[in-house]
Amino acid sequence: MTDENSVLLIIVLLPFIGALLPGVMIRGGRTVCATFTSLPTALALLLLLLLAPAVMRGETVHASLEWLPQLGLSASFFLDGLGLLFAGMILGMGLLITLYARFYLSGDDPMGVFYTYLLLFQGAMLGIVLSDNILLLLIFWELTSLSSFLLIGFWSHLPEGRQGARMALVVTGAGGLAMIAGMLILGDIAGSYQISEILMAGDAIRASEWYLPALILILLGAFTKSAQFPFHFWLPHAMAAPTPVSAYLHSATMVKAGVFLMARMWPVLAGTDAWFYIVATTGLVTMVLGALIALFKDDLKALLAFSTVSHLGLLTMLLGLGTPFAAVVAVFHIINHLTFKAALFMIAGIVDHEAHTRDIKRLGGLRRLMPVTFVIGTITALSMAGIPLFNGFLSKEMMLDAAQQTEWAGSQFAVPVLATIGALLSVAYSLRFIGHVFLGPVRSDYPSTPHDPAFGMWAAPALLATLVVLIGILPVVIVGPLVAVAGAAVIGGEPLPHYSLKIWHGVNPALVMSVIAVGGGLVLLALHSRLDRIWNALPRPEAKAIFDALVDGMAALSRDLIERSHNGAISRYLAILFAATVALGLVAFAGGSMGLPSRALLPVAPPVVVGWVLLIAAALFVVVMHRHRFLALVVIGVIGLMISVGFAYLSAPDLALTQISVETVTIMLLLLALHFLPKTSPKESSTLLRLRDAGIAIAAGLSVASLAYAFMLRDVSTISGYHLANSYEGGGGTNVVNVILVDFRGYDTYGEIIVLGIAGLVIFALMEALLKGPAAQRLRTTDLSDNRSRDRHPLMMVVATRVMMPIAVMVGIYIFLRGHNQPGGGFVAGLVISIALLMQYMASGFAWAQLRQRVEYHAMIGWGVVIAGLTGAGAWLAGKPFLTSAFGYVHLPPIEEFELATAMIFDLGVFLAVLGAVMLMLYSLSRIARSAREPVNAEPMDYDPTARGKATRKDT
């Protein structure tokens, strides 16, 4: 891996690593927190600038780490002109937002949490714009939806904040799901999931019969993310977020993700009638509709939100036109929109912060009270209006030029007219922003006396306003090379079209359209009060009401389905599950072909017959006596023991050892839990229902047995030979089962310990519910004396378990260390030590054992998962796929040669996760026991050794 490759990976990782800092640094104060938050962003930006010269020369920087190459999933990234543009915007704006938020957020706001969310979102956005694998891009795409949900709903005490966050998550998340399907189709057509390879397969993709479905699905993801009609309604409601969030998400990052996706896929998806009519039409409608609504909004942030919708429509329209010139114009306007829109959001936040209102009708005359804010706001608003000498004018002229060259359905006027109307409305709402907020007489009824804020708050918008002017006057010098290299990346292998970033292009159709737009905008501003009354009198659908109705309807339907199927009866759940499984199996069986068995049957040995009989008898006993819980539990243990014997008989000692350990732990936990339940359970259901359940159970059992029997009678290709041949050479172990678990199928094991940890946490959460409300009251009033023997903690058992404790721990360590070459390993070792600890609880009681085992089991689970994950990630440092193990042999005289393997560290993570999950379940039972006032001695040996005279029981 070259230095450039490493740098690119570091750029992507820095925000995620930096997200760990704010929560710690906030203890040093707000300024310290903001400073340390800015460091990862600043360092990533510096590293990006180091790679910029190579990209500006037309090179592409690649970096890749193997993850799951067999599935086409690798951590692949690449940096070209388009990626450089967006990554620079994300990081540059991230720095400015960090500074602005330091002064904007109040002392009551949890700044550390805010900055953590901000860096997580920043990392996700960098992942989107730099990913070279569409599967990885999809992961980052969904991560932006989740992190933006946290940012938009940051002020969770506000109902509108929670509603806006939910709306954004539902809309963008749904679009993301559609996009996943489209991207998978695209990868299948191209034969690769690498974006750099997909971009070279444009002709094959456009010629495929699956092109249109893939296009529609991908555009659904892009349109929902970039708030295109009819999905535009979520963005204005997301304005309930703090202004720094609005400035960041809705100018440079989240809403531009959809635009980025369309630009990235432009070489392979553009150039067809479907692309033109879907994308260009959607963009035009969104541009005009957003601008029209913005003109009549009285909330500053709402005005800016709908103006953002309009400009996103403009960008979508330009990309939809399908010409290289329009694509380059879109790139130029992306830069310009970032500079003036982010600054305007910050200005709106400053006005709200100082005047304590964003209502335009309650503002006006602020230019005298807030002169600095007035200058910055005026410059950026004039740029948004497209007035000469500001950068917005240049890209607006080029947009109008691209529009007037386009026909739509045979009409030469549709696109130019609609584009001009959109520009006209843009002038009107931009001038209204200036005139109705800053101009006019000073009012005496401001909610708070406004004044210019501290330098730290207006520094960021001032810098952006400076860029607005510099780009407007010197566009070729300031952004010319970046526009060229980013535009070249968008249009792919095509040569750059002729375009000019000059301020003056002479008298041409675009200039005439621009003059009409400015003049018409002034007229609309003059007539605004009359038009506003007409607008408010018109009936119009409310997007939020429609969305709420849809969501409420889906929620009501879900509740109805849950009430009908999820009534708390486990028998019903199992009946539905088994019945559906059997039905699907019969359908598959009926549609398949019957084949005769190809393998001969093995002779049945007498021990096997005895085992079958015992298993059948035990199963029938459990069915008949299931209401007698203790007896049923004992017989279930017998069944588990017989299965373990079967594994041993079939030469599977690892499975036998694991099965025995699992059975022991499970039975002991259930025995402890039975202490708080009646000895017998009530009659669950009628005879008819039990017969129904019996029929389904028999059908399910016969189906599974038949399927297993059919599999065993057929010759199938296996991979056992590969594992046997490579276990020692490739994994460094002679215990093939353990090598499979920690090496060949280590990813499966990693997922399993995560699931096990989640199961422990879920049990803890469920048990937590028993400590509150009516359940807790029943626990406190239940008489458990009938469930105890007279000698609650027999002395012989207490002494035996405590003597055996260190021995059991040594056995567990031994099993752990030998696992790579002999039956054992981290999973079994965790269970063995869990059994030893469980015995302490059973022998000496919950309270006594809990007082002497002060371990945070939540953290133990977490550390187990982290250690296993870090072991897998360490393989990347050597350029190997995730969880590839390394091993070697060390000889230290006089000790014999021994093996060191990274798989042992991974197994340590498995051990901690298993032990933590089991003990967390036990800890949950312990809390219930103490809540139920379980009288258990806190002193060793069940007696108070300090008591004189007769032995006195000291119960607590």
Kindly summarize this structure in a few lines:
With 956 residues, this protein is mainly alpha-helical.
Explain what the structure shows.
- By secondary structure, the protein is mainly alpha-helical.
- Helices cover 71% and strands 2% of the residues.
- The chain has 41 helices and four strands.
- α3 runs parallel beside α5, α20 packs antiparallel against α21 and α31 runs parallel beside α41.
List keywords for this structure.
mainly alpha; two-stranded antiparallel sheet; disordered C terminus; membrane; antiporter activity; MrpA_C/MbhD; MnhB; transport
Q: Please tell me the overall pLDDT.
A: 84
Percent of residues in helices: over 70%
Number of strands: 4
Instruction: Please state the CA-atom Rg, rounded to the nearest Å.
Output: 34 Å
Q: State the strand order across the main sheet.
A: 1-2
Task: Tell me the structural class.
Answer: mainly alpha
Outline the biggest β-sheet.
2 strands, antiparallel
Please state the overall shape, judged from the principal axes of the Cα atoms: elongated
Number of helices: 41
